[in-house]
Amino acid sequence: MSITPGTRLGAYEIVSLIGAGGMGEVYRATDTKLGRDVALKILPASFSNDPERVARFRREAQVLASLNHPHIAQIFGFEHADGLSSTFIVMEFVDGEELAHRLARGALPLDEALPIARHIAEALEGAHEHGIIHRDLKPANIKVKPDGTVKVLDFGLAKATDLASSSSASVMNSPTLSLHATAAGVILGTAAYMAPEQARGRAVDKRADLWAFGCVLFEMLTGQRAFGGDDVTDTIVAVVSKEPDWSLLPTAAPPGLRRLLARCLEKDPKRRLDSAAAARLEIDDVLAPSATASGIALPAASPPAAAFSWTQAVGWMLAVGAFAVAAWSLRSRPTGSSDTPVYASIDAPAGYVLGEDDALSSMPTRTPFVFLPDGRSLIIQAAKDGKPQLFIRTFDRPDARPIPGTEDARVPFVSPDGKWIGFWTANQLKKVPVEGGAATTICAFSTSLGPHGATWSAQDVIVFADSFTGQLFRVPANGGTAQPITEKPPFPYLYALPVFLPDGTHVLFSRLAQLDAADTSLMVQSIDGGDKKLVLASASDGRLIAGGRLAFMRLGTLMTVGFDAARGEIRGDAVAALESVRQNGLRGRVAADPGDGMFAGSSTGTLVAIRGPLIGANPTTLMWADRTGRTSSAEPAGAPDGGRLWTRIAPDRSRALVSLQTPRRAEGWIVDWARDLWSSCDGCVTDLGSGAWSPDGRRFAVGSKNSIRLHTVDGSSPDELLVREDGRTLVPHAWLADGRIVYQSSDDFTAFEVKMLDAGSHAGRTILPRGVGTEADVSADGRWLAYTSHQNNMDVVMVQAFPGPGAKVQVSSGLGTNASWSRDGRELYYITRATPDGPAVVFMAVDIQPGPTFQPGKPHELFRVTDPQRCGILRCYDVVPDGSKFLLRARPASGHQTVSRFDVILNWTATLQPSR
């Protein structure tokens, strides 16, 4: 079809050609149904004629369409018109000048460049919160409207339209480069903004966008590209090996701006700024200077090193001075004052990270802050080398000081009089004076995860949440035995994050949902028991703040609402107070905590917060490992984002079913190695994240609350109910050749039985009674059952005759879990840990001698890897039939990330909109 003005593509009438590039032609058009201008991007025919890529793009487009941000041009639709050989995208039409055209006229003055840079950072921040990376940020993809508003175009399309499907980490994930390999002028425009890891063909994450942001900002300030060259090769060489010419920066560029550029243009992504929110805050500090400090070296405006050192020292002194002035105003200002808010960023104590530096957790999983009641001092939990410590930060001092007696302390909370700090350590709740000293034990508390929040009343009662059972308990602050104040909540909920109301007899708490992070609510109950009262739906982590208001989290946004604490009722409508506050989303079946917000509010109206996205399970990828531990990628192109919780290989080895955990929900995916693609498998996975293939590979047994159902993987027939047990959680483990299915039945994962379902039966019979074992697997010949059993305060791998009865034989030498048989029954595999709390997972094998009796050999180590998540009670690996390769999960190339800086807003409540 020839596309000219007046051409109709469905409901869209072409007005004019806007431009053409590597991702197709772009036209201005009129939406005749809605009467609005839109932009149509006609994708290349080579893309549209590939059904797999079209299907993959459609999935990406659904995610991209969810972006609704004032500085991002939105996608409205993904369509195909009769007579047109290509698919097209319907996008928001942005009437403005491309930043590339503006830069062709020269550098921008600071007062023009900084607002544009701030809008770009906000756009990146909003997209990254949704897990979307631009991958092709450059001036040609940025438009400045006549009113000065910035719109970033083509978000995420680089990934969606990538033709290099054989390698998701290819350099070709830049669409302009892959489609116009001979158009040097166009290529240069993209290559000049590639991060070094992208130019080397490695996997990229949001830090690649921060690099491109630094390139764009440098170009706005200097009128020249940070990395240029006569051709593509020269440009990429400059990106990978050379530094920008820092002397080009205008002499008026303040130190904070130079620091931001240096952090964005770090060639090592581990040292690079990793948050668009942090970039935005740095720009805010330049636009309205506040108290920030960073140890990164600034690029010099002029060559003499001595002059630079003096400038840096002066900048540091000014920053500390600004924070001291802000702190003085905090001390002298009465609560409720209408002073102008003061914004600052503060680093964790030198050498420490916020929360816990746990190799199994990339970010804090509990709020690392709590204010003392006077609102002028902050208790901070930080960690060094994996060991937590509590610090006190008084706002009239430039540093935080450790509190003696709080080594290895977690989950801090304070007494109402501000004299004591409570915390959890060594399976005990303890307290220590604020100034430090000998810690006093309050009560024993042995749950390995620690309490999920604790609170202290004026009547010296402490209420805390059990992370495992989800119950709330009370205990006298002077010590005693903890008593439950709630029943164990019904599946799929947990009670957590309690906060005493002023009357000292009622607590506000979160009812967290383990299936859907949006299905959370705030509730109130008396500590003496009684009925629970719903306070607010779709809300978690409620905290009382200054001004008679309630602050709470709603999927990454900090909200506030008027609150009548005496009646336990909200007043008016909730309003958004601060976006992009880091919050825990769903993190796995048992350790689900879709609630904790990384913030704390004081009685004087101060807010501290860690900015960032909703956190899900640690991001992981699939990899193969041979018997020596040599690894290779097991993921085709187009891999979905999220944490891989477990995987099961199909009997023919061509596919595997993968349970993938996003921050909000669990999803099922099929990885198909024969066709080199991923495909969604709706209905294959529930919240439990485990199941079993049928011997013919056509169906899958899916476990859930109350039942096991059979799901046809290709969707050709409806699901079939196999067995139902009301009030129980059922998890299939093995589907034998004769049709029998072995499954686990439990009281919400706290009391386990292993059962067997005969072919054609709808009722299982117990083969391992309650409390004997879990994680069962049956040898291929159906003779032996391997399982994990808790013996002498330790998990070990046991084997007995299947289906029993028979003698029990311990197979593992010491700690062992997650047993799995080889297909020929001659080997049994299991995992252990190099150290009890360490991340190194050791894969063990035991030779099994054939014969009428079970004859195991001596366990021997195959290899060891670092697992970013604990396997828990569901096996998180699988083995090919001949035992030559193991399918595992691994941390992405971006590695372990930590948080060492947080934001402070003095007089924050002055910025809040009143509740309506």
How would you characterize the overall build of this protein?
With 916 residues, the chain is of the alpha+beta class. It is built from 13 helices and 60 strands. The strands form 14 sheets. Strands 42-43-44-45-46-47-48 form a seven-stranded antiparallel beta sheet, with no helix packed on it. The chain has a six-stranded antiparallel beta sheet with strand order 1-2-3-4-6-5. A hairpin with a 4-residue loop joins strand 3 and strand 4. The two termini are 54 Å apart.
Low-confidence stretches: 161-189, 290-338, 358-362, 588-592
Number of H/I helices: 13
User: Helix fraction?
Assistant: 10-25%
CATH architecture of the largest domain: 6 Propeller
Total beta-strand segments: 60
Could you give a short account of the major beta sheet? Answer: 7 strands, antiparallel
In short:
By secondary structure, this protein is α+β, with helices and mostly antiparallel strands. It contains 13 helices and 60 strands. The chain folds into four domains: 1-93, Phosphorylase Kinase, domain 1, CATH 3.30.200.20; 101-291, Transferase(Phosphotransferase) domain 1 (Transferase(Phosphotransferase), domain 1); 333-446 and 488-617 and 897-911, Neuraminidase; 773-874, TolB, C-terminal domain (Neuraminidase).
Topology (elements, then pairings):
Elements: E1 8-9, E2 12-21, E3 24-31, E4 36-42, H1 45-48, H2 51-65, E5 75-80, E6 87-92, E7 97-98, H3 99-103, H4 110-129, E8 142-144, E9 150-152, H5 157-160, H6 175-179, H7 184-191, H8 196-199, H9 206-222, H10 232-241, H11 255-264, H12 276-287, H13 305-332, E10 342-347, E11 353-354, E12 369-371, E13 377-384, E14 387-394, E15 401-402, E16 410-414, E17 420-425, E18 428-433, E19 440-444, E20 451-456, E21 461-466, E22 472-476, E23 483-484, E24 493-500, E25 506-513, E26 521-526, E27 529-537, E28 540-545, E29 549-554, E30 557-564, E31 569-578, E32 583-584, E33 599-601, E34 607-609, E35 614-615, E36 621-626, E37 631-633, E38 643-649, E39 655-661, E40 666-672, E41 677-680, E42 691-693, E43 699-703, E44 705-712, E45 720-735, E46 741-746, E47 752-757, E48 765-768, E49 774-778, E50 784-791, E51 794-801, E52 809-810, E53 817-821, E54 827-833, E55 840-849, E56 855-856, E57 860-866, E58 878-879, E59 885-890, E60 901-906
Parallel strand pairs: 32-35
Antiparallel strand pairs: 1-2, 2-3, 3-4, 4-6, 5-6, 7-8, 8-9, 10-60, 11-13, 12-13, 13-14, 14-15, 16-17, 17-18, 18-19, 20-21, 21-22, 22-23, 24-25, 25-26, 26-27, 28-29, 29-30, 30-31, 33-34, 34-60, 36-37, 36-59, 38-39, 39-40, 40-41, 42-43, 43-44, 44-45, 45-46, 46-47, 47-48, 49-50, 50-51, 51-52, ...
Helix pairs in contact: 4-9, 4-12, 7-10, 9-11, 11-12
